[in-house]
Records
---
Amino acid sequence: MLRRIGACGVHVCLPPGPQFRGVWLYEPKSFSGRRYGGLRMHIMPGYVHVYTGDGKGKTTAALGLALRAAGAGWKVFIAQFAKGMMYSELAALERFADLITIRQYGRQCFIYEKPDTKDIDCAERGLAECREAVTSGEYPMVILDEANVATMLKLFPVEELLDLIDSRPKGVELVITGRGADPRVIDRADLVTEMREIKHYYANGVTARTGIEQ
C-alpha cells in the first residue's frame, strides 16, 4: 500500500524487521538529473540507548518504548537479567505476544552478594539469546533489561556486552537498562539517560506495589 507524503513522494508500508526499517520515497528525478523518477529506499538507522542511574523508571522507560515500537508494527525482543520473579509487565505483554517476546534470565530470588553458578549460567544463556536476536533480522528492537546490573554483579563480563553492541546491525535499536552503567557502555551509546532519585516514597517505608513497581 502506498501513502502520499506531502508533494515530494510516497510512503510504502513494509514488513517488520530491521532490514525494512525505512521508507520508499518517490523522487520525480534521479540524482543524475534524468527525467524519469523512481522509488528510492531511505533506511532509518537504529541507535543504542542506555537508561541508568539510581532513580526509578529505567525498566519502565524501556517497556514504554517497546509498546510504542509494537504500535508501529515492530517486533521486539526483551531480555530481563537477574530477574526471575513475576512482574505485572509479563502478564500485560502476553496481549502483544505476536510482536513482543519477553524472557527472564534469572532465578526467583535477589542477588545480594556473590552470584551463584546458576545465576551466571542463566545470564550467559540470556546474553547468547540476545546475540541471536540482534543479528537474526527478525527484531528491529532488542532490550537488555538490567544488563548493566548483570555486569556489576559479574554475571557476565562487560566485554561481552560491548561485543554485542559492536555486532549490532545498523538497523537495530538496542536498549540497555540498569544502574551502574560501565563507562565503556556509556561511550558506545548514542543516547544516555540517567534517572536521578530526588525523592522516593520508599524512604517512608512504602514497599513495592503490584502494578507500580512489580
Note: Residues 117-135 form the longest helix (19 residues).
---
Amino acid sequence: MIPSRLSQGEWKFLELQSSQSFDHKRLFIVFTAHTGDFELLAVVAATFGPNVTSLFRPPNNPYGAEQLSRFRRRRIGNLVPSHAGSAFALARQLDCGGGVGILVDQKFRKGLPTKFFGEDVRTNPLLAKSVRQFDCDVFPARCIRLPYNRFRLELEPKIKIPRNKQGAVDFQQTAQLLNVKLETWIRQYPEQWLWYHDRWDHRQKN
C-alpha cells in the first residue's frame, strides 16, 4: 500500500493523509487545484497506482510546452492536453476502467456561470458531465507544502454530487461545489495557490 512505501528511501519527503485507499474498485475522478506542488499527486499515482490519466493545460510557448511535456510524461504517465477532444480522451479512459485527474481551478470561457470568492466566474462542466455519463465517484485531493522541503498529499473522502429532483446530476450545483472546496483550500493556505490567469476576467471588465 502507498502509506508504508512513502516512508521509505527517496519518498521520505512525502506524507500521505487519506481516509480512502487508492485501490478504489469503482470508476473515479480525483480533482485538485494548483496548490503546493500539485503534480506530486500524479507522480505518486503513476509510481504506486492506480492508473490515472491527468488533464493538463500546456504552456502557450510551444518550445517550452514540448520540453515540459517530455519531462512530465517520464514521471506522470498518461496525460491529456486540455483542448478540443480532451473530453473524449478522458471518457475513453473511464470507459476502460481507469481513473481520471482534473485541475478544476482553470479558466474556461464557455463554462457554467458560478461564483468564486463571491465574484462571477465560468467553471468547466467536464467533471459533472463525466459523472453523469459514468456514475463515477469523485474525490478531492491536494498537495500542501510543509517546512523543511516536505509535502503532504491529502486524499479526502468522496463528495456527494448534487442531483436534481429527477435524480440527474445537477451541473450548475456541482460546478459551484467544486469552487466552494477550492475556496476552503485557498483560504487555509493562500500563499500556496499558484494560478496566474485572470479567472475573474478583471481585465475584460475594466
Note: The chain has seven helices and nine strands.
---
Amino acid sequence: MTTDHTKRRRALAAAIRQLSNVFVTSDMADADLDAATKSLGDLARQFVADDVVDRRKRRGRSFFNVPRVDDDPQEQSLFEDSGFSGRSNPMATNARFWVDNDVAHMVVIFDAVTEGAHDRVHGGVVAGLFDELVGAMISSLREPAFTVQLNVRFREGTPLGVPVEGTARITGRDGRRISLTAEMHSGEHVVAEAEALFLTVNPEQFGGPGRHL
C-alpha cells in the first residue's frame, strides 16, 4: 500500500518534471532566471541525504513484484525511484509497465524533455525504456538477473506527445542466459526493435555492483 509520504514525494517529483518540460520549451528574463536558480538551490538544501539502506527501503517495490494489467496506473513501474518509470523520480518518464500472459507491456507519452533530434525522442531514452521493458519481463520469472547485452534497431523516429506502446517476450534460455525480443510502436508504425540478453545471478549478488559473468 502506498503511504501518504510516498504520495507526497510523487507529487513533488511530478511538479519538478513539469518544471523541466516548461524549462526546455520556454524562457524568462535574466533576472527571473537568477531568482529561480536561487530559489531552487535553497529548496535543494532542505533535503537530507539518505544512506543506502534507507534509500533501498524507500524504493518499496520488490524486484519480483511485477505490475499487472489491472493495477493502478500509479503503481505500474518497477521501482519507486527508477530513472525511467519511477513515480518518485523527477527525471523519469510517465511510462507504465505491466506483464500479462507472458508478455511485458509498456505505454508512454514522451515529453519535450526527452527530445533528441528535432521532433523525435533521443535514442538513449528509447534504449533505456527497452531495458526497463525487458526487465519487467525478467522480473516475472522471480529470478534475479542483470542485462548483459542490449541491441536496439531504430526503424523510425520515435514521436513526442503521442502514445508509444511496447511489448517484450522471452525467446529462449540456455542455463543462466535468457534471451528476449522487444518492440515499440506508435499506432501501426514500429519505431524501434530490441534484442536483449540477461544473466541470472545469486540473490546476494543482486544487491550491489560487481562482476557476474
Note: The longest helix spans residues 4-25.
